[in-house]
Design a protein that fits this description.
Keywords: Membrane, Transmembrane, Transmembrane helix. The chain is an all-alpha fold. The chain has one domain. Helices cover 68% and strands 3% of the residues. It is built from twelve helices and four strands. The strands form two sheets. A two-stranded antiparallel ribbon has the order 1-2. Strand 3 and strand 4 form a beta hairpin. The relative contact order is 0.16.
Length: 309
């Protein structure tokens, strides 16, 4: 049964690259993207079940509460990602999508997207744990951690508010609509990308989530690092590198999304700014932290097991 998942995963990923066939319609492009996500999930599921006897998908489907919690988390993650980077930052567009179509696929689309992100991370993490077993539990906190995470949380709130304010000021000065169907420079040649503000907001959200995970007596990425368990960080870097290359490659001919207005865009690969691949780990850090902060057992695999004194 589990081996079948592996075969189906590879087949799904293989057929998803039919996006390179000319004259593929918009709806077929979306179907091919869905096949890609299915492939990532099934392959990753096989790895986590085979090597760790755990399944994120089964945990999510275990109850309506778990399913709803995951969908809610993915919706919040989608609002943060597209709300900041797309609508305010204008860093990418969906050239073939109308606002109504975008709204219709928002929840299922981001549920599939974030599930693929989580599964790919967990698959790499499980393999790394097999190769280099690390510390699995946080049994005792360092003395400085209470004030450290409180400070981190306050910095997160300050950074988030400051970045949001700067983004809103910049947005209203540009006088641009939220939903821009083409390159924003066509409508506003003087547009300046608020890339620094976007990065500042990411830091703010991450720092706040680190505090929230600490407050809820859960482990977190920084806590794992502080307690000398580096596997999650390495898994984020490796997982994002692998996933980003295949996901972006699959989208090149399909063009479901197009990157626009990125700084350092002259340094590109596959007609995409190389900076995109460099900051791809931010997808993982933000959503994995959000998922762990907002849920309980269904996200227990994300960092270490929680046993904090």
């Amino acid at each position: 049964m589990h081996t079948r998942k592996l075969y189906l995963g590879f087949l799904s990923m293989f057929f998803s690259f039919a996006s390179f066939i000319p004259e593929v319609g918009v709806h077929n492009k979306l179907l091919l993207a869905a096949l890609f996500y299915v492939g990532v999930v099934f392959i990753s599921e096989w790895i986590t079940i085979h090597f760790a006897h755990k399944s994120l998908l089964q945990e999510i489907r275990k109850s309506w509460h778990n399913t709803f919690a995951f969908i809610l988390t993915t919706a919040v993650g989608g609002l943060l990602l597209d709300g900041v980077a797309k609508f305010l930052g204008k860093l990418w567009i969906y050239p073939d999508w109308t606002p109504i179509f975008y709204a219709a696929i928002f929840i299922p689309g981001f549920a599939a997207y974030w599930l693929a992100i989580c599964e790919s991370y967990l698959a790499v993490k499980v393999l790394l744990d097999k190769i280099t077993p690390g510390k699995r539990r946080v049994g005792k906190l360092h003395r400085y951690e209470r004030w450290f995470y409180s400070t981190l949380g306050m910095c997160g709130v300050i950074f988030s508010l400051l970045a949001t304010l700067l983004l809103l000021i910049d947005f209203f000065q540009q006088s641009l609509p939220l939903f821009v169907p083409d390159d924003v420079r066509v409508s506003a040649p003087s547009f300046q990308v608020a890339f620094t503000e976007v990065m500042l907001l990411f830091l703010g959200i991450w720092f706040f989530l680190e505090w929230l995970e600490y407050y809820r007596k859960k482990t977190s990425l920084i806590k794992d690092i502080v307690h000398h368990y580096y596997t999650p960080l390495i898994a984020i870097v490796l997982g994002s590198m692998i996933t980003s290359v295949f996901m972006e490659l699959q989208n090149v001919p399909a063009g479901l999304w197009r990157y626009t207005n990125w700084p350092l865009s002259d340094f590109a690969v596959l007609d995409m700014p190389i900076l995109i691949f460099i900051i791809w780990p931010l997808h993982y850090i933000t959503f994995l932290s959000l998922f762990r902060a907002m849920t309980n057992k269904e996200s227990a695999m994300i960092w270490q097991s929680d046993r904090i004194a």
